[in-house]
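Supplementary Methods. Inverse-folding protocol.

Structures were first reduced to a discrete structure-token string of length 300. This string, shown here, constituted the complete conditioning input.
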């Protein structure tokens, strides 16, 4: 009776290959488990960004270590032969996954230079630009942004490095243009007075804000990166609201009120509250009603 030998795959027994795949799955599971546990342990003790990158580094170390150990002891993995084959394999990978490599390298640069950080409010240029978004997660290849309406945008890390990124969180303040239309017959000077007065009365529009907002804004200019930008700790008077005439038509004059705020997530609600206050005051003085020119009575 003839006894058949073990089934081989590339010179490796089939049972060893199966065990290797189970070990691979176990490494991935263990890496994810280590990531979640370390994030939970570090939560509240260090910043979210530090906790995330520390947990991710340990996760990748566990996965890579598990794959190497499994291949080394289950598949008779030869490191010398593997290194010798990297020349040809590297050329193939470079052409087949060039975009992935670019994003991975960009992810490393983001980790080192930190052009964006978790929970920052940014706008990433492009076609089209992202609009105002909050940085929710930073992975090795992708940056996840969340829009004000809750939608998530997955941006390749290479775009973060190569495109223009506007950070409002690091500046700390944001200038908001607020459109306002009035009849062409309205008293423009009085409308401007009302618009500025409403801005000064709002508790979240600079410079006449509460003590907490005032202190938080003044502390922004003491940060190290502000010093590198040659900020000389200016007073808050530079953030006075302004009213500009945008366009003049036959029946309407369009104005733009430019106001500074610090509570960036509340931008829409601040603008809505401000416009309600302005419209109420304009209606009280009948400045939103178009006045018809008076005609002289005909003789006879």
């Amino acid at each position: 009776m003839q006894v058949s030998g073990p089934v081989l795959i590339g010179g490796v027994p089939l049972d060893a290959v199966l065990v290797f795949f189970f070990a691979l799955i176990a490494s991935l599971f263990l890496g994810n488990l280590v990531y979640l546990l370390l994030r939970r342990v570090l939560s509240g003790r260090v910043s979210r960004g530090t906790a995330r990158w520390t947990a991710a580094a340990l996760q990748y170390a566990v996965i890579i270590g598990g794959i190497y150990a499994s291949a080394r002891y289950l598949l008779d993995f030869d490191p010398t032969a593997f290194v010798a084959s990297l020349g040809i394999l590297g050329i193939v990978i470079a052409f087949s996954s060039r975009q992935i490599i670019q994003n991975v390298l960009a992810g490393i640069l983001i980790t080192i230079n930190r052009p964006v950080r978790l929970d920052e409010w940014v706008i990433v240029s492009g076609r089209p630009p992202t609009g105002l978004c909050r940085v929710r997660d930073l992975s090795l290849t992708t940056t996840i942004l969340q829009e004000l309406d809750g939608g998530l945008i997955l941006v390749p890390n290479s775009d973060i490095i190569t495109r223009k990124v506007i950070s409002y969180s690091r500046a700390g303040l944001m200038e908001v243009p607020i459109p306002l239309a009035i009849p062409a017959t309205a008293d423009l000077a009085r409308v401007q007075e009302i618009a500025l007065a409403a801005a000064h009365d709002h508790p979240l529009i600079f410079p006449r804000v509460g003590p907490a907002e005032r202190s938080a804004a003044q502390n922004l200019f003491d940060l190290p990166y502000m010093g590198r930008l040659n900020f000389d700790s200016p007073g808050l008077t530079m953030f006075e609201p302004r009213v500009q005439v945008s366009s003049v038509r036959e029946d309407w004059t369009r104005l733009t009120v430019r106001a500074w705020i610090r509570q960036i997530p509340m931008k829409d609600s601040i603008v809505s509250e401000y416009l309600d206050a302005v419209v109420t005051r304009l209606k009280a003085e009948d400045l939103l009603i178009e006045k018809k020119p008076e005609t002289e009575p005909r003789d006879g």
